[in-house]
Amino acid sequence: VLNDSFISFSSLTSEDSQFVSSKKNQYEEHMYRVEDERYEVDMVTELNRAAMQNLVVAKRRMDRMTQEELSRFTLDDNLGGTSAILMRKAIHRVYGDKAGDVIYGLKNCPSKVVPVVIQRMRQKDSEWREAIRTYQRSWEEQDARNYLRSLDHQGASFKQRDAPLIRSKTMVSQIDAIARDDR
Prior knowledge:
There is one protein chain. By secondary structure, the protein is an all-alpha fold. The protein has a domain at 26-152. 71% of the residues lie in helices and 0% in strands. It has 7 helices and no strands. It has helices at 26-63, 67-72, 84-95, 99-108, 110-150, 155-162, 168-182. α1 (26-63) crosses α3, α1 runs antiparallel to α5 and α3 (84-95) crosses α4. The longest helix is centred in the last third of the chain and has 41 residues, at 110-150. The model has no long low-confidence stretch (mean pLDDT 86).
């Protein structure tokens, strides 16, 4: 069973562990979010590319068949790939609600449906690659903006500790106390 929907990330340490993890600051969180977006986009594009490659191999095999063999040829549940779930997931990403009809066509009439699906997957691949180029600029800007601040683990605690000390009311009362002591 392949789990690509849920990610386990420990935010607390166990009692047995000697490792003390530091709390992430907001800039680190932004860096993690960008990395998660990159990972998700990579997973989508690579899954599409792998599914498309599997269908290309099936099409080449069909191209070498006679007309009679081609009329009897069907794809199994794996749809020309090694994993039925991954192939279905890739087709669902491309076709959405109509994926069930496309999968039915791939299984029962692959000679007509496979070329159309390959063409659509190539089109989606180029669209997604263009979107990645657009996102890449945004991700680079966010990384540049957050990187140095993400390294500052003590800044938030210093800011929180110093905030009451630098208020004008606190400073005035300290000056008054020093003035009283000098008298």
